[in-house]
Amino acid sequence: MSLKPKVSDRDHIQGNNSADLTIVEYGDYQCPHCGAAHPILKEMMAELGAQIRFVFRNFPLSEMHEYARPAALAAEAAALQGKFWEMHDAIYDNQQNLSTRFFVDLAEQLNLDVEQFKNDMQKESLEEKVEGDFESGMMSGVNGTPTFFVNGQKFDGGAEDLVQMLHEN
Amino acid sequence: MLQKNDVAPDFTLYATPDQKIKLSEFKGHNVILAFYPADWSPVCSDQMALYNEMLKYFKKYDAEIMGISVDSKWCHLAFAQSRKLHFPLLADFEAKGEVAKKYGVYDDDEGECKRALFVIDKEGVIQWSYLSPTAVNPGADGIIEALENLK
User: Fold this and answer.
1) What is the CATH number of the domain that holds B20?
2) pLDDT tens string A19-75
3) Which of A30, A60, A54 is nearest to A41 (CA)?
4) Closest Cα of chain B to A14: distance in Å?
5) B137: domain range?
6) From the candidates A26, A30, A34, A61, which should be mutated to test the interface with B, based on the most B CB atoms within 10 A?
7) Are strands B30-35 and B112-113 parallel, antiparallel or unpaired?
8) Nearby residues of A34 by Cβ (< 8 Å), 6 or more positions away
9) Of residues B5, B18, B44, B109, which has the active-site annotation?
């Protein structure tokens, strides 16, 4: 199964944007497996970030996880102020504390314009971004979270398997 | 296993402890049948929980999704409540696996349904079917593509 659509400048990208290796994660901010994967991925990027273009796309399982969608919107709202990855990390680092109020606290801690952040969280365009990510995951064969794609092909395994594969190659 | 252009065998199965669903009553709508081995698989990778997130996309194609396993109506009720599922789970319970056998997706060794998907059109004809390895959640991309091709 392959990734649709391809990675573009609509995506949140870290690492080396011109690297030959692209890893896409479809994740849910409240999913415990994604939470467990987060430090592994951080370590992977610290070590190999110069060789990897890493992309995160939202795949909130909203029926299962009450705060998955609000968290996705919080990260997207932070992105409008240039702090997507900071919010992304802060949410995963505090996964057990998620609440509506907590996203605002995080915005304060990240020195965002909080009023702007609150307004942006309500924006239809952010809903559409999150929904668009979910839809692309659905079309690409995402069957749970996290799901990884390596150079556009679905990777059959978790974050640890991914790191192991990178070390072997 | 039944394939494209086979007529979908009709059936009547319990969807709740006091309500049965008859497939032929859905003529005029597309139907997705998702046979799966058992309720209560791990949460974040659960196939039924995944489809539960995608109901509005299925609706766009005028498609109703139904899960089918050999679990009883009471087991389905508890599972559906636990996972907040908003679509029916059908109990292929008595005679056990009878419907799965008609569709050619019963696993005799395990006494469970195989993990199989069918997309049935508005006339009750199978337009797509897919057998997944039992341990692999097949996701929804194949279903959406099949529904797209019906248009």
Assistant:
1) 3.40.30.10
2) 999 999 999 999 999 999 999 999 999 999 999 999 999 999 999 999 999 999 999
3) A54
4) 26
5) 12-150
6) A61
7) unpaired
8) A25, A27, A28, A92, A145, A146
9) B44
Residue B58 lies in a domain: yes
0.90 surpassed by complex ipTM: yes
B74 within domain boundaries: yes
CA atoms within 13 A on the CB side of A118: 8
What domain count does chain B have?
1
- Which residues touch B77 (CB under 8 Å, ≥6 apart)? B16, B17
Place of tokens 């299962």: A64
* pTM score, whole prediction: 0.95
Q: Which residues of A touch B46 (CB under 8 A)?
A: 144
Encoded tokens for A78: 């932070």
R_g of chain B computed on alpha carbons: 14
Active-site annotation holds for B75: no
Which one of A134, A141, A144 has the shortest CB-CB distance to B44?
A144
Q: Domains along chain A? A: 12-168 (3.40.30.10)
